[in-house]
Design brief:
Blueprint lengths: L56 H4 L13 E5 H11 L3 E2 L1 H6 L8 E5 L9 E4 L1 E2 L1 H9 L3 E4 L1
Length: 148
């Protein structure tokens, strides 16, 4: 075997369909485009979503709701996650830069602390927002809460 006699496996390569090469090919004459009309002619193009004059889907379906551009999307962290990080990295003082260094939040993200889970130690934490239960839970353990 050498490079000059390499060829694909039998049945792996399919012959291209020879369109508009005479009646004997099976797709001669109109070349599979039917008779007359815009679609049979060269340069035919329709707009995206055009359904041949029928009311298109994007106009049949009603508009619903809206996107509130004033909404603030928070990156959230729970008390259980905070406790796990405090245990693992031996941290008691959490501020924005600490969260960035630990890759919990990315640049320009707004952080909110939620009350899922329990705290075992007193921590000082600085975030953009706190749920009321999280604030109470942190302060009960002797920790401090400050809003950025």
């Amino acid at each position: 075997m050498n490079l000059s006699n390499l060829k694909p496996a039998k049945g792996a390569v399919k012959q291209a369909k020879r369109i508009a090469r005479g009646q004997g090919s099976g797709s001669g004459g109109t070349a599979g485009k039917g008779h007359k009309g815009a679609r049979s002619r060269s340069g035919y193009k329709t707009k995206r979503g055009f359904e041949g004059g029928q009311m298109p889907l994007q106009r049949r379906i009603p508009k619903r709701g809206f996107k509130n551009f004033n909404r603030v999307e928070y990156a959230v962290i729970n008390l259980a996650q905070l406790q796990a990080i405090a245990d693992k990295h031996n941290i008691t003082n959490f501020d924005y830069e600490t969260f960035r260094a630990l890759r919990i939040i990315s640049q320009d993200e707004v952080l909110k602390v939620l009350a899922n889970g329990e705290l075992n130690s007193a921590i000082t934490i600085e975030a953009h927002a706190f749920s009321e239960k999280a604030r109470v839970a942190i302060e009960e353990k002797g920790g401090k809460v400050s809003t950025i």
